[in-house]
Amino acid sequence: MHDDVLTRLTAALGDAVVTSGPALDAVREDRSGWVSEHPALAVVHAASVDDVQQVLRLANETRTPVVPRGAGTGLAGGALASRGAIVLDLTRMNRILELDDVDELAVVEAGVLNGDLDRAARERGLWYAPDPASRAISSIGGNIATNAGGLLCAKYGVTRESVLGLAVVLADGTLLRTGHRTVKGVTGYDLTALLTGSEGTLGVIVEATVRLRPVVAGETHTVAAAFPDVEAAGVAAAGVAAARIRPALLELIDAVGLGRVAEFLGPDELAGTPIADLAPGETFLLAQTDAGDAAAEADVIARVFAEAGGRVTRSTDAATGERLLGIRRAMHPALASRGKVLIEDVAVPRSRLPQMFRAIAEIGERYGVEIPTLAHAGDGNLHPNFVFEGDDVPDHVWAAADEMFRAAVRLGGTLTGEHGVGLLKRRWLAEELGDASVELQRRIKQVFDPAGLLNPGVMFEPAPGTAR
Hints:
globular, alpha+beta, FAD-linked oxidase C-terminal domain-containing protein, eight-stranded antiparallel β-sheet, Uridine Diphospho-n-acetylenolpyruvylglucosamine Reductase, domain 3, FAD, flavoprotein, 3 domains, Vanillyl-alcohol Oxidase, Chain A, domain 3, Vanillyl_alc_oxidase_C-sub2, oxidoreductase
């Protein structure tokens, strides 16, 4: 059967089909640290919607699993090769098809990189708001498949808020178009929202119509502070929300992470910043405000930070703002310089940030592991990190992560704020959503994908006797 599938794929798509070599190894992993046990049957480098439709028609006819894949920057194991599967690589579908100045939208193929779209939009006085940390290397299709977030979510929303419509190839090869180019549109069920965040389990996103925004005018104000401990910083972050301020970004690095960043950057890079003379236990909180009320908002934030015990630095200088933001951006490179990193992704109500940081500290102490944590404090999204050696995540790290996920849910939060469920978190899905919700979602998948061929095993535990 496999030989027949490969023969027919190659006959239809020629050199776009790869059956051996580095390309097959590359699709066994993403940036989560998870490596698939199984090689792909083949990698198909699709260059058009027709290519995608041909692959899915053949896969449906032969009951061959298909794993849609973008740039491979995922952090939840959501686009990895599985046994006997075709990996459908969309990175060659990388054209910006339209930029509309009046309707403030773009139409793009799934493989367009987030940063490339934003740069093209800025040339027209517009910008694309969703800004995951991987924006320079992650694709729009992958961002939509995981409903990616980023630094600016608290004010400008996650990816779903910027998706107007989609072109999606279904499991049988049918091309479905959803959504509208209009500002408003409520006809029928909102399939665009359903497909956004579906992680390739309902269809293959091949094109998107996305909302652009006018470039924000005026100065950006940056307010940064070092706090005596993470709970004080958490109180300050919650205080910003309580003051009815929505900064463009509000980022927090805990004491463990800040120590690693300081070590990584060195004293010269940190000179003149709030963490130049870092004291034990200190935590870093960074806010930026923009648009017409930026100055007044920065005044309030600086006061809230100071009242919570922060040593405050404030600037309107763009270079200084970028330098301070560079401290936050250095977090993951600093950790990666010390070993492999499991980057986790939980979210809690903003008012519960201090309790969640306390829970993370207690879990780390109980399991004897450091858990350096970065947070998008403006929306309660935390990224606890585990640094380890070797190819596999150690059992005691998974045990600590298990407690951390449950702590987030107990506090009214979620297993994942922006990375998705993928393979890594499917075992905890029912604990957050409940059995009834999971069963309903399985039935929705069955409507879209009756044979269960699309990204098998992602989000939902596989049926007994099947492998992922």
